[in-house]
Amino acid sequence: METQKNHTQQAILQALRKAGGSLRISALADTLDVSEETIRRNVKRLERTGTVEKLHGGARLRELEDEGDFRDRLQRNPDAKQRIARAVAALLPDDCSIFLDIGSTTAFIADALRDHQNLVVVTNSISVAYKLATRNGNRVFMAGGELRAHDGGAFGSEAMAFANNFKTDYAILSAAALNAIDGLMLFDLEEALFSRAILTNAGRRIVAADSSKFNRRAPITVCAPQMIDLIVTDALPPTEVRMAAEVWGTEIKIAT
């Protein structure tokens, strides 16, 4: 049931994007071939996450205020992301295998890895692949599939099949939201599915998230919080997140 709700909410977000940001409830119901009541119910859930605003007879996308274009996200909290990137890079030895996702923080991590040698890098991010390919004996494996214009990420059935071919020493993921109840959350279902596949096949699982992501919510939970071994962030998380991390068995590292 939860997966079905996530699929419906993701379909609503995609329909709103294609329509330029807003649609009437009746139009969403026709587009998704579901009842208007199903649309209203899921719009209410999306409104609670802050991604959609419910209007009289319709809905308006607010997701761009939370995630935005990849280039815009690179400009948010750059100092914090650089500190996080250096801290993560310091944890990774030469000659290891790593997965890096398409997040803006992981783009900074790719920069911080420029002096590492003989890395095996698995990614679905064209930005990460470009930064680390042909450097210092690295081998870079880039997922196939559809390359998205707004973030340079490769997704689809080919990308999922690609992900299942690898077992990496480390998986390094970014976050749209991280809270004490749901753990790691994202706005995009394709990203979440891809991340789940990678997490299943990784030795040590690291989430790199600046402190603005704490106590936020997004529509899709990526994994059971207990799967995350380490959170690297730029400031002490809220008390409830720290207490939850103790229960999960998740270490927290503050980048300086």
Automatic annotation (TrEMBL):
The record's section on InterPro entries has: Carb_Metab_HTH_regulators, DeoR-like_C, DeoR_HTH, NagB/RpiA_transferase-like, WH-like_DNA-bd_sf, WH_DNA-bd_sf
UniProt keyword Cell division present: no
Instruction: Give a Pfam family name.
Output: DeoRC
Q: Where is the HTH deoR-type domain?
A: 6-61
Q: Which keywords appear in this protein's UniProt record, sorted alphabetically?
A: Repressor, Transcription, Transcription regulation
Please tell me whether the keyword Transcription is annotated for this protein. yes
Q: Name one GO molecular function term.
A: DNA-binding transcription factor activity
Output the PANTHER family linked to this UniProt entry. Answer: GLYCEROL-3-PHOSPHATE REGULON REPRESSOR (PTHR30363:SF4), HTH-TYPE TRANSCRIPTIONAL REGULATOR SRLR-RELATED (PTHR30363)
What is the name of this protein?
Answer: Glycerol-3-phosphate regulon repressor
